Amino acid sequence: MTEKELIEGCIQEKRVCQQEVFRRYAGKMMSVCLRYTRHRMEAEDILQDAFIKVFDHLGKFQHKGSFEGWIRRIVINTALKNYSRKSYSHEQIGVEYHPDVPVEPTVFSNLGEEDLLELIAGLPEGYRLVFNLYAIEGYSHKEIADMLGIQESTSRSQLVKARKLLQVQILKLQKIAV
After folding, report:
1. Is the whole model's pTM more than 0.85, yes or no?
2. C-beta pairs of 27-31 under 8 Å, 24+ apart in sequence
């Protein structure tokens, strides 16, 4: 079944088409959800809410750009709305002073994808959101500021602090590995 046929079937509320769309995209979108939440159960809730929105708004999909990209945007927006409803969105996190220490290039080559995702998941909420939106999703600081209701300078600052914190964590891993 083609993507267009699946979309048409979903619009007609054909259960088999809805199941196929979910089967094709849920895994990738769950990865997105996990980057924006603290717990797997929270990510699963966001995924479910996002797919409900996908099916409710499929008639608005204009076949411009990729269907997967359209779904991803809904998932990200759902995750951000979930974040704004949570009380931890107002956490204030400071970063201790850490002098710039050169990081050996081999540290990064020894760091696996799972390790890196785990380090990112351990970032404070604001840092993690901005880091994910900028470094992984590719949004600009202006777009991030608009999405999160913050200043562009705050977005930049959060990204710098997130990178610095990740650097410190990577250095700690390097010391443990040695």
Report:
1. no
2. 28/68, 28/72, 29/71, 29/72, 29/75
